[in-house]
Amino acid sequence: MKKQLLKLVSxxxxxxxxxxNYLLSETILISDKIKIIDGDxxxxxxxxxxxxxxxxxxxxxxxxxxxxxxxxxxxxxxxxSKNSLTEKIINKKLKCLIEPQKxxxxxxxxxxxxxxxxxxxxxxxxxxxxxYPKYSKKKYSKDQIYAKNNKLGLWSMEFDYPWIWRKNNx
Length: 170
Known about the structure:
This protein is of the alpha+beta class. It has one domain (27-168): CATH 2.40.50.90. The protein has six helices and eleven strands. The protein has helices at residues 2-24, 77-89, 119-125, 133-136, 141-149, 162-168; strands spanning 27-31, 34-38, 41-44, 47-51, 54-55, 68-70, 73-75, 94-98, 108-114, 117-118, 130-131. A hairpin with a 2-residue loop joins strand 3 and strand 4 (47-51).
């Protein structure tokens, strides 16, 4: 009886361990079927993926677009970010590591790569998106410092961080 109970407990422990690791592990998606939504969100094989840990200016938020100022001229910085992402990844094969939990809006969260280069790091390092400290644990902070120090992309303009812009445009 004790042996059977021990076997059952061992089996349940092993099953729980394997199942938990499976459910908590990242899923890998690889595809070249890409549609760009904005500077931090894509459709990959019809799955909406939000790049976790970064935030890009808005192309469409409650019917509004995010603008920046450069030399006192309004610039559609959401469009700049989206177009730059498009140039970087269109017609390329992406490998995305998808987190187990979706975001509040039901989007997959993940980090995507082209030939082992993080698209998120690229966007932040070139000043086209920002390290989103609320979610990134400062993963992209060095890339952001580089972009800021070199006045790349949005760092050459006056802007509101996207999370602040959204808060002010609800």
